[in-house]
Amino acid sequence: MSRAPITKTGAERLRAELDRLKSEDRPRIIAAIAEARAHGDLKENAEYHAAREQQSFTEGRIAELEAALSTAEVIDVSRFGASTRVVFGAIVDLEDENSGEKVTYQIVGDLEADIKQRLIAVSSPIARALIGKSEGDSFEFTAPNGVKRYEITGVRYQ
Asked: Which of 69, 75, 80, 141 could pair with 129 as two cysteines, CB 3.0-4.6 Å apart?
């Protein structure tokens, strides 16, 4: 079984979520189930069924996070230094060669990818196109809406 890469920051964020689920959400849900049970007939008790559904979701997420963290390989990207070459964990500044639009992404593991936070998975098409390139290089990749061409204007590690 291969170990999925994850940044140190991503692992800390997932551990914090796991701790919150175990120490805050789980006890709150258990209390809600107990309170709903006290109301009597469980067949027609919507609060009971909602709390059980939430418990199921929470327990599933706890199991998912525990499994992911147990098999993940935490990589400290700060030790990569001041390289201008793009590797896992790099924060990359890009400029669209057609529109001039500028964007910044960090290449992270699949477990921690979140496009809203500009964290792209190492397995994504754009990250695969970026890996191995250096600052000043141009590259293209196929996006869902067509071929995109970017120039790498900056590479850094935190």
From this structure: 141
